Structure formats: C-alpha cells, structure tokens
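Schema walk-through. Below, the input block comes first and the output block second. Nothing else is stored per chain. Lengths vary across the set, and this one has 86 residues.
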Amino acid sequence: LGKTTLTSMLNRLERSGHIIQKTAEKDKRKTLVSLTNKSKSLKDRYEAVSQEMTSLFYKELTEKQIDDFEIILKHILSNLNKYEEE
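--- output ---
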C-alpha cells in the first residue's frame, strides 16, 4: 500500500472505532496503532468467516494444488514489490 492509501485506511478505521492511533513518545515520526475492544470482540466472527472463505476458495483442490497456487501468489507479490521499489 502507498503511504497515502494506508493513512486514509487507518483514519477510516479510527473514525469507525476499530483502531486507536497514537504518536510514539520516543520517535514522533512513528504512529502506534492498536485495536479497540470493538475490533477485538469481532475476532471469533472474523476467524469463522475467514475459514469459510478459505474452504470455498480451495474447494476440491488437492494439497499440492493449494501449495503450488500459494507459491505462485508469493512470486507475483514479490514481482510487484520489486517493481514498486524501482
């Protein structure tokens, strides 16, 4: 994510009550982000939805196919990160 995209996303999460942003005391250039109780209370629901989506995504794929797919995704991500650094 670009810095402005990340900043906008964090600001929206803070406005909706999901995170708290605080400037670090020792290094004012850093912003510390923590979850609110509201977000922490959603953990079980998030994990259930995540497991359901994973089951849907990988339905009828073998373990090898899943492993190969994830290797390819990591390679694509690496390519994108290298491109962004150039």
